[in-house]
Sequence to fold (215 residues):
Amino acid sequence: MNYLAPSILSADFSRLGEDVSVAEENGVAILHIDVMDGMFVPSISLGFPVIESIRKKSGMVFDVHLMIREPERYIERFAQSGADIITVHAEACTHLHRTIQQIRQTGKKCGVALNPATPLSALDYVLKDLDMVLLMTVNPGFGGQSFIPAMYEKIRELRGRIERESLKTDIEVDGGIKVSNTGRVLEAGANILVAGSAVFEGDIAANIREFQKIL
Ligand code: DX5
Ligand code: ZN
Fold:
């Protein structure tokens, strides 16, 4: 099954609750929430209070993308704040296997994210433990950047590996996803598409409908 996961990073934070409701009312099942620490990535975005607030208003699956160093310090807190999927960056974890086990112990779904230049071999020995792999298709830190074309091949390689190993792992792509490249990204093998600016800039409901036509 293919999903659109709107990223609230591009929402209007002065009316975040309303923007989230519009997404949910228009059939969105997964909400992508970007947490940035100003260290792993240059920017700082949002944290526990924001997630807790929107959790009270929404029944969507909360897909929390942690762009923070040493995320093991906060896994339990994000689980309590309302995350359903917790994704950590392989580059940000000294003991990735341990951090994955920590996420699993919370009972939440577990994802690992890879930056564009990080090889898929970073997933060797842990892929079977994951519900989802997040392939960054831009360098993380900001919305509104352009999709890096070399990532089509990376998606294809990962999908091939997941199929060869008969796994059910989801492949999420994040960064520069638009209606115009959705077809190629799906064809390469991704099944969860994060879109920030393409959903929250302009008419949110109309933008979602455009994606839904091709998902
Ligand atoms: C970037 C974030 C993305 C961001 C995507 O570091 O992880 O989720 O919101 O934004 P767009 O879709 O505008 O590239
Ligand atoms: Zn993200």
About this structure: The pocket of D-xylitol-5-phosphate (ligand 1) is lined by residues 7, 9-10, 32, 34, 65, 138, 140-145, 174-177, 194-198 (CB under 6 Å). The mean pLDDT is 98. The first strand starts at residue 3 and ends at 6. The helical segments are 16-25, 48-57, 75-81, 96-106, 151-164, 179-188, 197-200, 204-214.
